[in-house]
Amino acid sequence: MTKLRINFSLKFIALAFLSFSFFGFSQEAKYEVGEVSLTKETLYDSDSRTFIFFEGAKYNIENSSIPFKEVQIELSSNQEIEQVELSNYSISVVEDEVVSTTILNSEDLDDDFKIEVSYFYFKKRKFAEIKVTPFRVANSGQVEVLKRFDLSYRKKAVAERRNKTATVFKNSSVLSAGEWYKIAVNKESVFKLTYSFFVRNGIDIESIDPRTIKIYGNKAGMLPELNQNNDVDDLEELSILVVGENDGDFSRQDYVLFYGQDPNSKYYDTIADRFIHTQNIYSDSTYYFITFGGALGKRIGNQESLSGTPTNTVSVFDDFQYFEKDRTNFIKSGQEWVGDLFDATTTYQYNFSFPNIDLSSNARLSISAFARSSVPSNLNIQVANSANTLQFFTVNFDRYDTPFAEESKSVYVFQPNSPNLTVTATYSKPQSSSKAWMNFIELNVRRRLVFSGQTMFFRDVNSVVANGLTRFNLSGQLQSAKVWNVSDYRNVLNQEFSLSANTATFVASSNSLQEYVVFNDGDSTVGFSGKVMNQNLHALSNIDYIIVAHPLFKEHAETLAEFRRNDGLTVEVVLPEQIYNEFGAGSQSPVAIRSLMRMLYEKANSAADLPKYLLLYGDGSYDNKNRISGNTNFIVTYQSKNSTSPVASYVSDDYMAVLDPSEGAYTGADNDKVDLGVGRFPVKNLNESLGVLNKILLYGTQQSLGDWRNLSVFVADDEDGTLHMNHSAIVSRNIDSVPFMNVEKIYLDAFPQIATPGGDRYPQATIAINSAINKGSLLINYTGHGGETGWTAERVIGVSDINAWQNNKKLPLFITATCEFSRFDDPLRNSGGEMVLLNKDGGGVALMTTTRLVYATPNLYLNDTLYKRMFEKANGEYKYQRLGDIFAITKAQHSNSANAKNFTLLGDPATKLAIPKYNVVTTAINGSPVNGKDTLKALSKVTFAGEVRDENGNLMTNFNGFVYPTIFDKIRSFTTLNNDNNGPYNYKSRNSRLFKGKASVVNGIFSFDFIVPKDISYNVGSGKVSYYADDNQIDASGGSTDFLIGGTADSVVLDDQGPNIEMFLNDKNFVYGGITHENPTLILELSDEQGINTVGNGVGHDLVAYIDDKTDESFILNDFYEAALDDYTSGKVNYPMNGLAEGKHRLTVKAWDIHNNSSERTLEFEVLKEKDVKLDHVLNYPNPFTTNTQFWFEHNQAGQTLDVKVDVYTVSGKLVRSISQVIQATGYQSRSIEWDGRDDFGDRIGRGVYVYRLKVSSRNGSVAEKYEKLVIL
């Protein structure tokens, strides 16, 4: 047996890993690559990319477009993979077409099949990830593919590493007790808190023992992203100086001094040999916390000047300044913001001042800038007598998948000629469209150690040596100066020195770089953030679900939390500020939110105790620092480091759920895995919040029960050849093994394409999608092109469609594998995905969706995995019931590429997908046990019998309710229309519904009958029955294909009469010619002795409706028909219509019975918009009358509160009676006002003719009135 063997000397990469049954496999397993093909995808216009595709291919498109096969294996915590072996493999040559048009033609391809092993953790369980790249360049120069192989591996024992790097979190926060106040600084300095500061901010300082004043904080700058490097765990007490505290009273002349840090950090880069700054992308302030009382506070101690022979003497030090102003984000994505724009203005000057600069030492200028130009361009830099040039690569303006701008950065060494340095930058601007932006400027200089009276920080890199001892000679105005060593921000020390002839001298250790500050007085520019209420997030443990809620939405979040507690979860609602205080030193940061989850994760002693869900209750923005007017930064977002590439930049809420020690850096080469389900409500106000909350609550109650839970809808675009339809078909195969699920396929190319002045359109596909959503479905899956406001280039779904959906009791989970449909972090636009969730009357319960540009081919495997996990069972139950579980496990099986990170969950991660728990089975057909041989023939009467059973197969004798059976004809083959000349696509679908009924279930048992329609497909083949049942509390579902359909019954009842049709709008009180709004509901009541035809097989035999005789725009009502209870001869339709034009219309309905006899019915109506009150059909009934009449009228204010007044006059104009009433208009017709024919004094008025005025006023001030006559007999 031929083998390929690869031995590994593995460097441990701690990458979180999952342990689930689907990962485990024996130490030898078989894999196939199969057919290798090409998929060409277009992003926008001509921007395209070609992918190599094979079944099960995975991609990491940031690094390479070459796909790979991936295997995940659970290990013990002390195991690694020692050896991987491939055997029984077959190799073939890749076709020239594939090689010549893809990356396989590059020189980067190895000369052997590449096998890589890495490790990760998922929910604290260790896994190995074996990646096989099945392409190589053979000795012949040809590219070969590994078509199939057996993979085996051998494990070895290693030291356990995870727990050694895990953080041990505190069990209580210092903020849990005492009185606390939060303050802010925006630069590095020594700060002064005076008596007036405390009094001005409402702190009763005179009642405080100053010896107990304490200040807490943490290291400034952004929190470390790598978990094992982030040691911020609650606030730490800092050493401070309280002048005048010894007497126990804080007098007016007393004050506090403390060292405060810049929110932007700086550090010395030993490789670059210079200081570098890091801009804080989350906060412009560093926060500190003041408290008092109890134990004595931590005070600044003295550091003596050391004795001994110095190894170095310092009178010149390193100084550092930078300039960075964040004004513009190129693509509304990513961490990078840039400053001055070189366009109309091509030259800017930047001034820096370094008093007592050492003119004999070199200085270094570091500069970064961006340019967008289709030809080479330059930024000319001049400082002192030095001139330099930044050169920029060109940008392809014609491709959307290339970087928006190119960065250029460099470091220049120059000789300073003055303490005041001006950096002049001039852009060459070779074309009118060429632009450049300044990013940052850094200056490293040497200054003489002279103190001029202004606070001055100093340090000296040259003095740092092992066992170093350095003498510092500081000259200047030092009579009242202090020198502090601030190298350790927690333990600031007062450096003692000797002063002689205006020179201060001290000797200190210089084993490491030491930072000092010399000052006379403190800086009083301290901001006051307010009082901090006691909190103690550190005391939390064993929490299933954390809801991080912006204060505006806290009440709604508490309602959701209580709802989930009743659902069996332990839930805690926390405010962002609380998290930032304990885990981020008071500054906002997604790392702080992750640290809270990490604390709960590390405290968990079992899998059951692990945190499972995180909800971010509030919208987010790509602008985390509120530079944009109307910003929506309610809950902080994590933006990618890449800020120029539309396909490599992303926003990720998953960032807050990668919890193991070696995770969190998000470098692009990481293999971090999310350890819990994260969702977000992108709400911006209370109305949006309440709308989403109500939808979530409704989805989880019996009000949303219905057979819509048995349907999955797959929508596919017509672009890129047949790519999207093929991908949709691959994903939908997962439903084939789920008996109760029915699939509706809406492929655009299967519908006529209409050319319009605005471009090609698919009006019938739009109707089909809107109908599918309004009638309800468990899942809506879209594969194809899209944008922020809709789907497909033909705009098959847009904003107006989304806002018109009315399906709030039948909410699907949307899965949208399309570009940036749910870009929730753009404050200036509500994306289509956001609107799907925010639509209070319908839309979706949640979306697993995309926030940036994505590629379809990498999407496919993620989408496919999502469905596999969604319907995976264990011990008779669905393994991953809640959306967060499904999403997390799906993400865990994928590389952490930008493409995968662009998928996010908008919605509640604790929502259970509405899959019925119990089972419905067929026990008999026409009185005989089900054996797979029963044949249902056209026009024959059929009786089904069945039962509702629990998960163990037992009859549920306490189940009393209704079952909704649907009988389908055989699977049929279809071919699309080839509208774009990309070739037709062949697919199969079971979409012919023979019968949909409603039957009583008594003690778990039911039966129903119907007559098989004439319009079946007459060849004999397997039919399908799909069941949904509920008893108004719980539900069940089932399905079977164990019977046949075909042929004609031996005896047939003759029938030549069409169905009876009754039609209304909105409610059964509607009259011919009545008024309605632009989104009415069509109500039909149908009956026929043989049954109604809703098959859809026979051409022209659909149940249809159309408006104003436009038969080419008819809408098919087959799927909306439901038979009456235990009666197949009658039924009803409720069909929501959307966006009708204002004015008069004529609605026609055509229905067929199962013998193909038809009937038509028409209804005229008028659409009036709801803004101003309009009246029609004002009358009183009966008229004439003797003792009692009702006033009837139609209006256009359904759902509104109306003030109605009826004034009755004699024909001469005398008022005899006024009737006033407030009504809540539930529909468009009112009959609630009655009159007994008496005047205002209770006396009966005389017989004769009277005039009345009916006046209606809405709460927005609109008024309408009409006059009519009545007769009293």
UniProtKB/TrEMBL annotation:
SUPFAM superfamilies in the record: Caspase-like
Residues spanning the signal sequence: 1-26
The UniProt record lists the keyword Signal: yes
CDD domains hit by this protein: Peptidase_C25_N
InterPro entries the record matches: Caspase-like_dom_sf, Gingipain, Gingipain_N_sf, Secre_tail
Entry GO MF terms: cysteine-type peptidase activity
GO terms under biological process: proteolysis
Entry keyword set: Signal
Superkingdom of the organism of origin: Bacteria
Domain Gingipain positions: 545-913
Stated name of the protein: Type IX secretion system sortase PorU
Species for this entry: Acidiluteibacter ferrifornacis
Underlying gene: porU
